[in-house]
Structures are given as C-alpha cells and as structure tokens.
Amino acid sequence: MKRSNILAVFFIIIFFFGAYSYSSAETGSHEKASFHKLETLADAVRDQGAHVTRWSLYARETSLQLKHPSEFYEQAKHLKKNFPEYTWQSVAKEQGYYQITGYRIIPNTEVKESVSFFAYPQNNNYKTYIIYEVQGNKWNIKSWRSYTPEIATKLSKIFTGKETIFTCVNGKYSDTMKSGLSKRVEQVLAHFSAEKVEQDNEKTFVSVSAYNRQWKDSIETNQRKMNLQVALRTVGSATSITIGTPIITSEY
C-alpha cells in the first residue's frame, strides 16, 4: 500500500474516533439495532424512488496498546490464525504506521467483508485499532437477513463489546428529479422523524445532519446531538442520495 493511502486511512480512523467521542452507548444488542438501522436506511432510499447502489456496515474499536512493532506482528499472526478463511495481505508499514487487512467474499453472495488491524506511534508506544466492514452493491433484505447471524458472530469474535458501528446506504434516482434537492432532504428527514441540526446548501449538493430521538446513540456537533446524515448530489441529469448513521462513512 502506498504511503499516501496508509496515512489517509489513519486520518479517517482518527476522525471517526474523534467524531464519536461524545456518543452514548445503545442498550441491549447494539449489533441488532445497527442491523435494523441499515434496513431502515435502505427502505428510505427506496421510498425516495432511488435504487440502492452500495450499502455498508462498519465497526471499529480501540485495541491493545503495544510497546514494540514486534507485538503488532504477533497480533497480526493471531488474527490470521483466527480467520483462516480470509485472504490476508502483507503488513503495510510506513514511518511507524502499520496495517494488515484480510478480506473475503461471503459464500454464495457478492458481499465483501474485511478485517483490518492498525497501529501508529503515540507517546513512545503504539495505539491500535481493529476494524470490520461488510459491504455490498445490491440490496435484498431476505439475503441480508440470511447472513446477519454470521455477521453478528464475526462481530462478537473480533470485538470486546465496545465497538462503535456505522451504517450507510448509497442510491441513485433512475429518472430526472422533478423536485429540488432540499425538498427531497426534507422528505427523508420526515421518513425518520428526525430534526435538522445543520445543513450545507449548494446548487447541486445538499447535506444535512439531523437527530432522531428514537435512536439511543448520538454524537455532538456545535453542542447539539446528531445521529443521522443525508446528502444529495446532482451531476448532469443524475442524482445520487447517501444516508448514514450516525455519520456518512462513504463517498457521496
């Protein structure tokens, strides 16, 4: 992996951890709650008359603090032993930053899942994170529910129960939109009974952060809670929609 790519990944990780530093934990099974949220995001995209082009569930957790790079390699060996079904890349390293990633396609599907382990220097030690992501380009709720038990098992095997989970859905409208982007965003917020917190308005792009009181997790922005982001963008005659909770984790 190129140095620029490695550093970009670490900046993204740090941002996500910082963004969620004010989160409140969900009660009960937060895995099941997140699975249900992904379904509601896909429903909202389809209710808007768009078709899902990508969906993802992303989980991460602070891992061990290491004293020496050799410990990273030991942990990487442990991961590879625990998940032999994955194809593992070689350890990528650059200026004290380390990363290893394993991935596979879930059998009989086009769904990809991956596990990544990262380490970077901090205060004469190495801070580490572990990340799990599952993503697909086609949405079928029956198929999704058929492999959620396997995903839940994978989450419990990778994490200690303190992981933070993000869900995100991208979609595209098949026809030229007859209503403006802002109106569409308002319709999405109404779908979730969410209150608008912040909004970025441009001629061909609208992004909104909002708060759904029914969801127990949240982050804080400008001293206000939020747990939903919606973005719509028009390029030529094509319009795309992206919805994420608590924040969008994909390009839009």
From TrEMBL:
Pfam families: DUF1779. This is YwmB family TATA-box binding protein. InterPro entries: DUF1779, YwmB-like_sf. It comes from Scopulibacillus cellulosilyticus.
